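Researcher: Structure prediction, please.
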Amino acid sequence: MNTLATLPVKRSFPKVKGNPVLGSMLAFRKSPIDFLESAWKAHGDAFIASLGPRKLVVVSHPKLASEVLIERKHTFKRSNIFEGGTPLTYVLGLSLITTDGESWLAKRRLMQPIFHRQRIAGMGDTMVAAGQLMLANWEKHSTNPAALNFSEEMKTVTLDIINRTMFSTNVLPEIDKIGQTIDNSLTWISGRITNPIQLPARWPTPANRRFWGNRALMDAYLYKIIRDRRAEVDAGRRTQETSDLLDMLLAARDEDTGAGMNDEQVRNEVAGIYGAGHETTAIALTWTWHMLNQHPEALAKLQAEVDRVLESGRAPTMADLPNLPYTLACIEETMRLYPPVPLTVRVAYEDTQLDGIDVPKYTASLIAIRNIHRHPDFWPDADTFKPERFLPENKSKLNRNAYMPFLTGPHMCIGNHFALMEGQLLLAMIARHYVVRETPNQTVTPQVAVTMRPKGGLWVTLEKR
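Model: Predicted structure follows.
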């Protein structure tokens, strides 16, 4: 019989001390990345942090991330601990990116064939064409000392690729404005998440009015495109040769019911492809060039590879990608150090456990992806840029849950192959033709607005090789 002295002590997560009312909200709001890293180093791989009245279990270990995202996927689900629906729902509606459970599964079944490797491979020439247009536009800058915002240049080319693959070229020139509306919307969402005073989203504050104006503008563009395309399909004016991602969305059918998507569902998925499809790849390429500027030996290896494979400066093809492993490794190592989406949240929908510790129903768990990517138990010299980690002969040695720039488990990003192929082609083209130099006296710091981008962009000058 146990006495009081011999009863086992119930384990609990360490807690971050903070303000009695706001908790750690002000530190989190100032810099989520700095707060999560410092708290991790002080309290370990799992701890509790309070953001105002909300308590989060923050995890920074691949085993714990696997428990949340894979082993207990039916318990820990997407939600918004702040307002009763994922924040991105305001922008993307109920889409593949914002739903969970049966609703998510039905959308995933509809979308999966669209992003099959073989279909994505057929888009390589389109990606290269957009890259060549970018290089042609850069010609005037190669002898001009004026600096360019490389972040914006990458957003322009990746948005062009989405336009070409989603809607075909020049279907609606004004669609370029969608990139800015999504960017503004992500900033608005980030502000709401980190604001301890939560006013209803429909209250007519200046920020809310700007957001809903952006949302209305985006909806007007997207619904017009969808209506016009349905009319083209009904009139028999779309063929296999003209088929793009929008055609595939309209033609998608649920395997079990045979049902397709209505206009609102198509609008939500298109918005999701825009949001995830251009922003994250642009950010990854921007951070990659920042890393290459900090590590000239890696840049020299990259240039040697692209010079050898793309002799005479020719454009890359899909057949070249296996011969450009270091190019891909540079992007993958950059996404380890600077994951485009540095954190994700899940909510326990029933009483459960995490690492053997009780987690009550409705407790939120924040997966600190950036911390996991720099965990010293899984990454020797964790803060050092070493693309060699991701060369083919070394990839098999990596812990698959210690690297999740596209998440892990069933919610792994459906467009991961699209993004990596796009990034590898664009990086090879840029490195073959230009030296991208950062302007001096520039402080490059991460800023989180759902995605993690360089604050103020990355300013560079271009030098023709």
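Model: The first strand starts at residue 46 and ends at 51.
Researcher: Thanks, that helps.
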